[in-house]
């Protein structure tokens, strides 16, 4: 049985401020991620109906690290011990598949995601949209640093793409669509 669920509205279509529009949509997608995971059992969060093999819990961890990599490591230039912490259990680089250790719970990963999003909001609020990423381990070449507005657009497409994947997975798991 297919169950359709409606989520909160997108930012108003009359909104013209670029910062409010970008951050509003990013928050809309962040909320949608949590809504799409809501109601799944522990087993459903850790299993997959898809041939690619990723699980909903791994997607949550991945999007947490997408925020960390792009805002802290990529934009601020922070040196992070594990920028690819969503990968494992190998050398923790971008070629490894997504991974969530068995002992980590949905509640812990949800709290980490929410905390990461709050930190990302502060980073964005304190910078100009045309500000370039600082040199650092993610962008060592001074002429190859993206602007904050580019990073925000990149994150929007990353969320939109993965939430589409999660829509398909959720429908296969329990018939729930929409949000």
Automatic annotation (TrEMBL):
It comes from Actinomadura viridis. It holds the Pfam family MST. This is Mini-circle protein.
């Amino acid at each position: 049985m297919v169950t359709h669920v409606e989520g909160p509205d997108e930012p108003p279509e009359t909104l013209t401020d670029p910062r409010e529009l970008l951050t509003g949509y990013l928050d809309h997608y962040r909320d949608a991620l949590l809504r799409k995971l809501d109601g799944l059992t522990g087993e459903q969060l850790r299993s997959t109906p898809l041939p690619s093999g990723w699980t909903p819990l791994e997607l949550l961890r991945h999007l947490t690290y997408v925020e960390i990599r792009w805002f802290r490591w990529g934009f601020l230039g922070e040196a992070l011990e594990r920028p690819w912490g969503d990968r494992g259990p190998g050398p923790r680089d971008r070629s490894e598949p997504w991974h969530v250790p068995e002992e980590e719970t949905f509640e812990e990963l949800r709290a980490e995601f929410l905390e990461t999003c709050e930190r990302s909001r502060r980073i964005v609020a304190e910078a100009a949209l045309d500000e370039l990423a600082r040199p650092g381990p993610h962008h060592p070449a001074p002429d190859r640093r993206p602007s904050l507005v580019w990073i925000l657009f990149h994150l929007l497409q990353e969320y939109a793409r993965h939430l589409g994947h999660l829509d398909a997975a959720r429908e296969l798991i329990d018939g729930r669509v929409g949000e």
